[in-house]
Amino acid sequence: RSREEAKNLSKIQHKNVVSYIGVGEYKKNVAIGMALIVGQSYDDYLQRHGPLPWKAAGEDMRQVMEGMKAVHQLSILHRDLKPSNLMRKANGDMIIVDFGLSKSSTSAITTAVGTLVGTPAYASPEQLHGKAPTAASDVFAIGIILYEALTNRLPF
């Protein structure tokens, strides 16, 4: 999975997605180099500042959607979008991180049918019913994050 994460990250170049630097391997342990992001996880940000005004939450999620648009255009799914996998810089820039469960449509890595990948609280209905996630599943997760940003709680 680490090799898959590195391969997927190396393809993505967008201001709202963590920048890939390189990958190294030592004794079958894989290390992925990524840009340092000075900021805080969106999870921490929401705990300190939530619930957010709708314009602020909307702007944060607009940036996440822009980043995910670039990811999806490369036929890559994140599959685990949640506040702890987003970073918010002090200037308000949102950065998508942790592509450890990402999957490319060209990937040889398969997930067993009926296996939930990701975090259940942010999973789409089709994922919860054992179906394969799609780009719409990532968008659904962003909707859950937006709801959480606006209300300070999960919808389900």
From TrEMBL:
Q: What's an example GO BP annotation here?
A: regulation of autophagy
- Gene Ontology MF: a single term: ATP binding
Q: Which InterPro entries match?
A: Atg1-like, Kinase-like_dom_sf, Prot_kinase_dom
SMART domains noted in UniProt: S_TKc
Q: Which Pfam families match?
A: Pkinase
Q: Where is the Protein kinase domain?
A: 1-156
PROSITE patterns noted in UniProt: PROTEIN_KINASE_DOM
Q: Name one GO cellular component term.
A: cytoplasm
Gene3D superfamilies found in the cross-reference section: Transferase(Phosphotransferase) domain 1
Domain of life assignment: Eukaryota
What PANTHER family does this protein's entry cite?
SERINE/THREONINE-PROTEIN KINASE UNC-51-RELATED
Q: What is the name attached to this protein's record?
A: Protein kinase domain-containing protein
